[in-house]
Write a structure and sequence with these properties.
Strand order of the largest sheet: 1-5-4-3-2
Strand content: 25-35%
Number of helices: 3
Structural class: alpha+beta
Shape: globular
Number of domains: 1
Mean pLDDT: 96
Low-confidence stretches: none
Radius of gyration: 13 Å
Helix content: 25-40%
Length: about 110
């Protein structure tokens, strides 16, 4: 389990969440509801982990919406801070660019 994901899950449980401007744009573009993002984080699976990212630790995870459709979400925590969990971006993964389980890139 990713330490970053654990922190994100704890922050979401405490409702300490922010959505970046880019995140809002991507959610709207792909018809993703923030309530699905928040509800699905507890069952998220790590795709890629970036604990030493220069803007702060972040993690790309696979989540599912209420219909069971896949969503990739990049969660971050600001550098030198312990809160909030930030939805950096979220999108529907392109099946042509990912394995059938959406956990590994094919390109």
């Amino acid at each position: 389990m990713s330490h970053t994901l654990q922190l994100v899950q704890e922050l979401v449980a405490r409702q300490e969440v922010k959505v970046s401007a880019h995140g809002y744009d991507e959610l709207a573009a792909d018809g993703i509801l923030i309530k699905d993002i928040l509800a699905g984080v507890q069952d998220a699976m790590v795709v890629e982990d970036y604990p030493d990212y220069f803007r702060g630790p972040c993690v790309l995870v696979l989540q599912r919406d209420q219909r069971g459709q896949p969503i990739h979400v990049v969660w971050g925590i600001p550098r030198y801070a312990s809160s909030p969990a930030v939805v950096v971006t979220a999108y529907r993964p392109d099946p042509a660019q990912w394995t059938s389980d959406f956990l590994r890139r094919t390109v």
